Amino acid sequence: MWEALEQTGWVKTLGSTGWMYSTVSVTHYLTMFWFIGSVAVVDLRVMGLVARKRGLGELAEQLFPWAWIGFTFAVISGFLMFATDAGDWAPSKVFHVKLTLIVVSALFAFIVQRGSRKWGLDPEISRAAKIIALISLLLWVATILSASEIPALEGLG
Amino acid sequence: MHDTLVAFAKWLEGTPWGLMTRESIWAYPFVQLIHFTGLSIWLGTNFALDLRLLGVGSRRATAAQVAQELFAWNWIGFAIVLTGGFMLFSGIATAFISNIAFQWKLGMFVPLALTWHVVVQRKARVWGQTSDTPGIARFAALTEILLWICVVTAAVEIPNY
Asked: How near does any CA of chain A get to the CA of B93, in Å?
């Protein structure tokens, strides 16, 4: 099935056309940094480490819409990169770890986004909220690490 | 000039951190992690300001406020990027300095984007006093985004040259 995807006409064109593949890679890196950075700023705000004068709810409202736009582009471009070499990527254990971490991290980002509306109304942000934000932050660090480990451990990418 | 640069690159490759990045299988992903984590914070905070200057998205805070409240973490992000980038560079410095894409990245786009960023960040306090930003602010913000796209593009092209 993954081999078939790899052999699809447009996927082969994408994989063998230098500027197309580069464009997809640039999109992937750029939107990923944009997404993770935006979520990280909100996480740090929950933890009381950035923009303390600014309401949490308001900051989350400013950054999260961009974060999810970035996420969408990162997922689409990531899938396209995967498709060009799907047969090799699909069985990669470390890649499975990366995908799992992305799902869990995105879930935590969503929890932080939802929580920010409520947490921002309290005079003092609860310890529980801060722990959730810290987990969200660490999950993204782990996700980037897992991505960096794929070429190191499995020679892909 | 060129000889000095080559000598410097060779020296970097022999430093403990240069050796570690190049030869240790476990070190490289961690060094890349430092670079990428820093880039996320750096670009995330840069774009937040640029987009506010462009006037798109939530406008409840002014650009001046956004610039001020993200200032510290913006530069913390930059320090992290620089640390990771310097270590990555030290690993194979001689190959990097003769790589055309790397030359464009570090010789042209990074200095340009960085200088532009400093100007935008300083000017944001003036441009961003009111909710609506002047045309020059929107132009400057859009240019900054494009300059960082150039930086990332040059970086992505490094392995192809």
From this structure: 20
